[in-house]
Amino acid sequence: MSDDQFDGVEALLEEARLTAGMPGPAERRRLREAADLSRAQVAAAVGVGRQTVANWEDGSSTPQPPARGKYLRLLEGLARLHPARAAAPVAPEPVAPAFVAPQAAQAAQTAWGVDGLAVQGEPGPCIRCGVVTPHRSTDGRPLHAGALCKPPAAPTAPQPTAATQPTAAPTPAPAPAATASPVPAPVPTRPQRRAKSAARAQAETHTLITRAVHEELERAEGDTEAALKALIKRAIPDVMTLFEETRATARYQFTAYPALPDILKKPSKREPDQIWEARPAFHHPDFSLKLPGSVQVTALDANAAYLSALKCWLPIGKLEHTTGADGVDPKRSGVHLITPAPWRHPHLPNPLGDRDTDGALWVTDATLRLLSRLAGPKYGLTSAPEIHESWTSGATENFLDALRKILTAAREKAIEEDDTVTTEYVKAMYSKFVSTMGESIHNRDVIRPDWMHNIHSQAYANLWAKAYKAHQAGLDVVAMMGTDELHVTGDWRQVFAEGRGVAQMKIKHGDAKASGEYTLGKVTR
User: Fold this and answer.
1) I need a labelling partner for 31 at 20 to 30 A (CA). Which of 251, 383, 408, 518 fits?
2) What's the whole-model pTM score?
3) For residues 30 and 24, what is the distance between their CA atoms, to the nearest angstrom?
4) How open is the CA angle 459-460-463, to the nearest 5 degrees?
């Protein structure tokens, strides 16, 4: 047998040994908590997701290769550091001895070792109750541990008669004070555990971001370009770790993926599904002609568009099919087949984006909510769309809100400290998180194309709201493109706060066809 074969056999035997001694789910959790380790730390060490560790600890799944070997070695090491407290042996029901233990023996106390366990020796009859026990008293004699010892009841004296009334009844000896066995600490109630877990997860998620940046900078020996390249490469698993930490106290699981309707499935790798995300590509008709005269236009950039769009209504269960308007409800989300009303405002972007064809189309819940608002009395810009059918489920607007807040705080701190590496790392995390949650080989942890479409559409809806705000303030909307690009005339600083914050706007600089401040020909209207 070669050395490689021998090493392989030894590795299999070692894993078999560890597997044979695998502790139960409750003990796995106890060992991790005893070492003050989070699920995210364990997950990162063994190469799985935080939810997988949670499943191992609640018994819903069993560790499997290749992570099983590392996990078992970790448990074995933790067991040496934090051994389980042995339960005191249950003594058999004592038999009343034929003698009464001497008073001196009744006062003896059980000896306890430094490990908190009763000292044991050769079994012998307990000096208090006579039942055989391995436990020892402080002077080395057999003695039951604390409450396990049941001293014999004192003999019952016959009831005296009037003729035999004694002059003085003997006073019985007082019962010995048994040494109480250690009482285990009360198990925290579920709300107490949840509060602790939420607070710890909040602190650890901030630490995970800074730790990753420091690790890559140190590995790259201070080369920020190389460190950033490495951080962007690990952005997807890192943001999934953050996401799982924010779900530590959640009521909804995201690891159970319900079957999707065909409209959400790609016919092929190169063909998209049938959902229309309402991506804008608007250009003001009057400013498309470059005639004599000029007007100043500013290209604005909406900061962190996808990060803001994480605050949207997402379906959390199996999508159910309905017809007509039955599936439309403020507390439900999904996708809808609609026929939109005509858009008769050429100087404003169409909230559905630019379409080549008319008729019915599948839109997201985010787009339908925007159209419904614009058809309401506050706006009155269009008529309500006709709804033909829907695929929806119960929804929540806060499913990704904890992750959004964590990333927003990290981004703001990095900008304040002029930390470009962390700023770009955070940007890669939220942008890749959104772009890979559909059918992607780069993210197997979240497979929800319905979420991806809704978040994209929410980003476009948010940009449309900014365009309408500028229009209402008297600015001309010259162009609106993608999720973050808005070109306007006039004093835009009177409408939007300038800066790099999530709720602010900044002048766009980059490789766009028009960026910063530029001039266009003007049409006299």
Assistant:
1) 251
2) 0.63
3) 10
4) 90
